[in-house]
């Protein structure tokens, strides 16, 4: 085992200040150095993404565009280097739930959070919201299947221990719902994990809620609850047009919700959050927040009180 670890160290690129993207990420790569997880060490394999490595774009799907930018689903697979002497079976791709990866194009660096990855096939998918005038957005807008892009990771600090069972509140804003999907899956896929999940999703309106199909699949599990917060939801009825947003009892909103979907037409504030406290349910409270830094700060503040979460158990993705 020791020589295997020594080999790993030799293969890893040393981390330098220039590896930070400079965007002030909560989990900066300089404080969260990509390193092999226990899962990888136990498998006796090498995690291909620990140093910058090439991934081939397998698929690209445009999810539509609007005033807030265009959305792309990108699917990548590791492009094995034929000269490195490794057999495909010697390596894996390990991006644990809640971790992100860094994309490097020349000296431009930007973090992205996979919403799906495959350990053995060495593939992952990201949802990208293109920012008008953004340098990486310009690059990603132009990528086509078969193009090669370089990624490094995994970067993050969240680790889930299924024992003892916990009450896990996962709160996501807009496209940042993507990295929360693997967090939900890791609990639901483990039949022995008795943790309960509350998945609270904040978006402008129903049109801006992504991964609804996945949430409906999750809703079949006894330990998963979700709620959509849609403060700008507005149908074409004259009453809702006049109020500039739908009423909580709006029949059109109800018709647009699918079985088991629950929506509130208000922002997620301290009082709303407190309705999910469920004090009778035992278990340590854990809060995970995915969104931009101001959203993370506000939710962490109100979550401490409304959900009775110890600040040590709050994780920002
Ligand atoms: C940990 C982490 C994970 C991330 N994961 C993803 C992901 O999975 N998918 C994804 O699309 N993006 C993700 N991002 C954002 C991503 O890294 C880039 O910032 C984004 O793609 C824009 O890059 P750019 O170079 O085109 O524009 P930038 O130069 O970075 O930004 C251009 C303009 O857009 C604004 N902006 C940038 N990002 C956002 C945002 N999310 N919301 C509102 N305004 C913004 C900037 O403030 C700036 O004004 C993540 C960011 C972090 C910190």
TrEMBL record:
The keyword Chaperone does not apply. One of its GO terms (molecular function) is oxidoreductase activity. It holds the Pfam family FAD_binding_6. Keywords: FAD, Flavoprotein, Oxidoreductase. Its cofactor is FAD. InterPro entries: CBR-like, Cbr1-like_FAD-bd_dom, FAD-bd_FR_type, FNR_nucleotide-bd, OxRdtase_FAD/NAD-bd, Riboflavin_synthase-like_b-brl. Residues 50-161 form the FAD-binding FR-type domain. This is GM22762. It comes from Drosophila sechellia (Fruit fly). The gene is Dsec\GM22762.
């Amino acid at each position: 085992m020791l020589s295997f670890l020594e080999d790993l160290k030799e293969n890893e690129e040393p981390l330098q200040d220039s590896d930070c993207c400079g965007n002030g990420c909560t989990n900066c790569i300089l404080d969260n150095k990509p390193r092999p997880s226990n899962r990888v060490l136990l498998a006796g394999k090498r995690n291909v993404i620990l140093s910058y490595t090439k991934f081939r774009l397998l698929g690209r799907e445009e999810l539509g565009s609007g005033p807030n930018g265009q959305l792309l689903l990108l699917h990548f697979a590791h492009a094995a280097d034929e000269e490195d002497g490794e057999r495909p079976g010697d390596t894996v791709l390990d991006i644990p739930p809640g971790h992100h990866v860094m994309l490097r194009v020349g000296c431009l660096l930007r973090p992205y959070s996979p919403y799906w990855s495959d350990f053995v096939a060495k593939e992952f998918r990201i949802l990208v919201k293109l920012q008008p005038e953004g340098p990486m957005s310009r690059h990603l807008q132009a990528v086509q299947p078969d193009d090669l892009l370089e990624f490094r990771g995994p970067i993050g600090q969240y680790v889930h221990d299924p024992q003892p069972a916990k009450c896990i509140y996962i709160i996501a804003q807009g496209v940042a719902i993507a990295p929360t999907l693997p967090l939900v899956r890791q609990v639901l896929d483990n039949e022995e994990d008795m943790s309960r999940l509350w998945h609270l999703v904040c978006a402008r309106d129903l049109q801006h809620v992504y991964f609804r199909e996945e949430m409906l699949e999750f809703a079949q599990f006894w330990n998963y609850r979700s709620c959509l917060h849609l403060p700008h939801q507005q149908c074409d009825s004259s009453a809702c047009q006049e109020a500039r947003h739908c009423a909580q009892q709006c029949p059109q909103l109800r018709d647009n919700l699918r079985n088991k979907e629950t929506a509130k037409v208000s922002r997620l504030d301290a009082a709303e959050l407190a309705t999910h406290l469920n004090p009778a349910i035992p278990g340590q409270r854990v809060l995970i927040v995915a969104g931009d830094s101001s959203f993370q700060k506000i939710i962490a503040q109100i979550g401490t009180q409304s959900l009775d979460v110890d600040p040590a158990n709050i994780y920002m993705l």
